[in-house]
UniProtKB/TrEMBL annotation:
One of its GO terms (molecular function) is SH3 domain binding. GO terms for biological process: actin filament organization; apoptotic process; cell motility; phagocytosis. It comes from the Eukaryota. Involved in cytoskeletal rearrangements required for phagocytosis of apoptotic cells and cell motility. Acts in association with DOCK1 and CRK. Was initially proposed to be required in complex with DOCK1 to activate Rac Rho small GTPases. May enhance the guanine nucleotide exchange factor (GEF) activity of DOCK1. Residues 267-440 form the ELMO domain. This is ELMO3 protein. The keyword Mitochondrion does not apply. Transmembrane segments: none annotated. The gene is Elmo3. Pfam families: ELMO_ARM, ELMO_CED12, PH_12.
Amino acid sequence: WSLPNAERYALQYADGRQTYITESNRRDIKNGSILRLTTSPDQEAEQLYIGIQSKNVDVKTDSLKKLASLSQDITFAQEFISRNGLKQIYSIVEEGNDTGEMLAHTLKAFTELMEHDFVSWENLSTVFIKKIVSYVNMNAVDASIQQLSLSILENMVPTSRLLFEVVKKEVTLDRLLTHLQVTNAQLQLKAMALLIALLLSATDAERRDMMDYLREKNIRQFIHKNIIHSSEPLGDEMAHYLYVLQSVSLNLCEHRMKMSMDPYSQEQRDLLQSLRQTAFESESEAPAGTFSTERRRSLCAKEFRKLGFMNNSNPAEDLRRAPPGLLALDNMVYFSRNTPNAYSRFILENSSREDKHECPFARSSIQLTLILCEILHIGEPCSETAQAFYPMFFGQDHFFEELFCICIQLVNKTWKEMRATQEDFDKVMQVVREQITRTLSLKPTSLELFKTRVNALNYSEILKLRQTERLHQEETLAVPVLELREKLKPELLELIRQQRLLHLCEGTLFRKISSRRRQDKLWYCRLSPNHKVLHYGDVEEGVQSPPIESLTEKIPVADMKMLLVGKECPHTKEKSSGKQNKDVLELAFSIVHDVEEYCLNFIAPTRYEFCLWTDGLNVLLGKEMTSERTQTDLDVLLSMELKLRLLDLENVSIPDDPPPIPKPPSNLNFCYDFSHAEQ
């Protein structure tokens, strides 16, 4: 347009995030995008740099407000930081004269500028950090400022050990617990985020101390009553933090789980002997002098055999396997001390059964502890996205030990129901694992409810469930049926393809995850009804299904080159953390379009969405659908279709070979003449 001083102007998207157009992103402009002419980022940065130093309060506030909004753009952020703009932000915070709205805009702008990773968090001055900490520690501060301050500290903690130590020292756990007890849900969430960041960055010893302190302060009861059972529904982010808290807490058992029993440790031998004494105290009451050493040893061995140890002369050998290591011994001792009646009943009942039919307490306990560790993922790193916490975990002190007490009695009950012998040990434990996992999947809210449900799910119920599932999976395997199956496949695969494309047309909400933390930024992607264009764009929290017109970004299907999944995706390679989480890898996929360097990166919310999207994109690319979901859907559809087709053949055995075709008749004069009949 031949404007004078053209370098003072720039183009910017009119909708969405209003990003500036630069040489590096100009090729991403899609047909139909609305752009507007505006001041160039360097001019804007210069004006705001001067504006935030103004003596006029209104000018300063407006400049900071605009800065907070524009700092989301990487080009502007670069220009502002290159002018040493962060130094001005530091001084506004460090001087500490401004409060309220002005300070809130300053902290928001700081958070957005740091998000671009141009400046290291370690460059922050001690005065600045102390000031941010003071906003968290003061009572008479606006909630929005406290939220932003907590968020800044949460980002700071994982970046360096030094910053972690500063924050841990300055922001006490008591202070965080105070913030957790407010009614403002956002403030509560940010306080929980900082608490989790501190726990994840701590060493094992520090984490143990912090968890002990939180236990003393009854954080579990508070979460159970005021967060899980509050009137407000639980958000995804809070659910994730509760999952991490549960995971960190359960992982405190990992140390004992990985430690084998030391036969020379007096403390461990005493624990082992206490099991024997609690069970057989009346028999062992005879004075020490009555028996010779040999007789005493044989009596102990006999009692350890009754307790169900495989190696009754040296029971410590049974506990050498790690996992479950000493955790199994801890569980047995807890059961014997906290529920002595149930413990004695278990031992005495089984020692009076026939030799082959007794349920071995110690062997069962060791195996059950291992099963519980596997089910509860003890010793595994926390997932970055999972939200699967058990509400009953927060409803009970000593959750793991109490769960063991319920489940070891379940083992005895199931053993009797199965009329098991020693050879059936593995089968019994398999059924017990199924009883526990099926009950946990119902998400009982308390251990009492878990106990009721798991006991109701007896062996005959498990058999019924298995039978039903088997019937769903089973199909007749006669040759003609298999041939019919192959004939139906193409038609049903086409049906699955159509379903996948319809799902892509409906679209899905995806979450953005950065390398530093879980982001609460959302974006939506959907396929146009004519299957020609993929539309996508950022959306606000709570938007369920945005209209296709509001999604500003587009990729023509014709420009799509290939689909990458898992480790091949660029956004999983970029992640710097060595512990690349398995679940993120399982949900990641990317579309390569135009020239190869352009990728649209996804992290699916669930495995189900991942399967549907990768299948749909493969269909658009003219390739085979490869997800495990395709196979399950095909099996279900084939099973239904076959059952419908074979309804008339119920109770008829289908031969493997077709019946022989009869010989042709000697003459073909058997045509009926209708004309005679009509007369």
